[in-house]
Amino acid sequence: MAAGRKRLVPKSIRNARILRIVHTPPPRQSTRAEEISCDRAHHTYDICSINGPTVLDPTASTFFLMDPTRSTPQKPLVEKVRPYARKLENFTMSRIKEVTLVAGPRSPKCEIQHKAPALVFSAGGYTGNFFHEFNDGFIPLYITVYTVFPDQEVVLVISKARDWWISKYTELLRTFSKHPIINLDNDTATHCFPSASVGMISHGFMTINPSLIPSSKNFTHFRAFLGKAYSQNRNLQNLPKSRPLLVLAGRSGGVGRLLLNQNEAKLEAEMVGFDVTVFEPTPGTPLKEAYALINSSHAMVGIHGAALTHSVFLRPGAVFVQVVPLGAEWVAEVCFERSARAMGIEYMEYRIKAEESSLMDKYGKDEMIVKDPAAFRGKKWSQEAMTIYLKEQNVKLDMVRFREYLKVAYKKAKKFMDKEGQ
User: Fold this and answer.
1) Largest Cα–Cα distance of the chain, in whole Å?
2) CA-CA distance, 384 to 48, in Å (whole number)?
3) If you placed Cys at 216, which of 70, 96, 210, 413 could pair as Cys (CB 3.0 to 4.6 Å)?
4) Mean pLDDT of 219-240
5) 112-113 and 191-193 beta bridge pairing
6) Contacts of 165 (CB under 8 A, 6+ apart)
7) How far, in Å, CA of 87 to CA of 1, rounded?
8) What is the pLDDT of residue 23?
């Protein structure tokens, strides 16, 4: 199998053991110059800080400690960090720009002065995939802001901040910081800050652990943060009060995990009592529109995939039904179930039977791939397993069986709608 294909699969997904990490409060590892500190004790990230006035030269991706006053070595102290929370994935991290922190007798002249500290991270890596943009980007960014800079303004210094990415996430970025973004890839002026932190803290897949954050922020707080970014005092859409709205997240193209009888599923949900909107997001779908739709809904249904990341826009108390393909139980849990439950969403799971999977037609019901996916997959996710279960597999729901799940979802959604009054 070509090495290039292996690179498409995050090692942290291929090797489940890597993710089973016990987090401890981050120890501060002092360097010889007390003004620079680095925490490299974690499996998924490194984070370094300059704890005093600093000058950024973006052309060199380097922060210089200004006028170090204590025990500055004759040779400048140098620390390097790649500010992206996929530390163990060598190929991914090789594409992340390295940022240097230097303590020495000389620093560049300051051209632009900032009163707020700098927070540096990369929007590279798996950016372009909506799930990873949250899992590897905005959730770690939220954790880092409230861990390192609680109750402080920050200036975001970002590498790989491409125009389409900034445009797509303008509202969210403005909620993190009111200050203009400094683009580490094309800015040429030197910038001065009272301090700087380079890197992002991750608590694991789609996870915010309040015990590791000084202000005990959790996923419910993150959901409220998203509401602050996208609600803009909009009223919920005017919906018929007698019928809850269900968003059916669709997939299209040759990417696998297609719902082959999506029209039947939509009709079935309508017969049960829902108003149904089919939602098939594209990279160009404005997030404020996606938020408006999903925030106004009472239920969401979809097959495991990146589009279900939009479940973070559901209101606490709404219903979320994840359709889980064969062999995808673990990724379904870590990617979406945990975050849904942490937000107070009514989570339901529809695990398909072998007869509902296209894999049975391809391999036969007696093959281990179909009969016992866990045994076939083993303890680690290989490229072969990822390809079979997440790319080759499509789903045709057993409507008799699925109807019973829809009935339960309807009762929960109707109760939620009546309680909320809309």
Assistant:
1) 77
2) 37
3) 210
4) 79
5) parallel
6) 123, 127
7) 24
8) 46
Mean pLDDT computed over every residue of the chain: 89
Strands 182-183, 191-193: pairing is unpaired
* Count of residues in the chain: 422
Q: In what order do the strands lie in the sheet with 191-193?
A: 77-81, 99-103, 62-65, 54-57, 191-193, 112-113
Q: Is 95 helix (H, G, I), strand (E, B) or coil?
A: coil
Phi, psi of 67, deg, nearest 5: 45, 60
Contacts of 188 (CB under 8 A, 6+ apart): 58, 59
- Encode burial over 242-277: b for 16+ CB neighbours within 10 A, e otherwise: ebbbbbbbbbeeeebbbbebbeebbebbeebbbebb
Residue in 88, 75, 77, 94 with CA at minimum distance from that of residue 36: 77
HSE-CB of 136 using CA atoms within 13 angstroms: 27
Q: How far apart are CA 320 and CA 344, in angstroms?
A: 11
Cα 353 → chain centroid: 29
Nearest-angstrom CA–CA distance, 98 and 81: 6
Side by side, the strands of the sheet bearing 346-351 are 275-279, 245-249, 299-303, 319-324, 346-351
What is the C-alpha separation between 148 and 224, in angstroms, rounded? 20
> Is the pLDDT reported for residue 6 higher than 50?
no
From the list 136, 153, 146, the residue with the least C-alpha distance to 221 is 146
DSSP element (H, E) containing 163: helix 163-168
Residue pair 208/217 in contact (Cβ under 8 Å)? The answer is yes
How far is CA 112 from each of CA 27, 66, 124, 243, 287, rounded to the nearest angstrom?
Answer: 33, 14, 26, 56, 33
* Residue 137 CA: distances (Å) to CA of 13, 144, 165, 258, 348: 16, 11, 12, 27, 26
Q: Averaged over 393-419, what is the pLDDT?
A: 97
Fill in the DSSP letter of residue 58: T
pLDDT of residue 32: 43
Reference 393, options 382, 385, 383, 401; nearest CA is 385
Q: Provide the total of helices (H) and of strands (E) in the chain, helices listed first.
A: 18, 18
Helix (H, G, I), strand (E, B) or coil at 399: helix
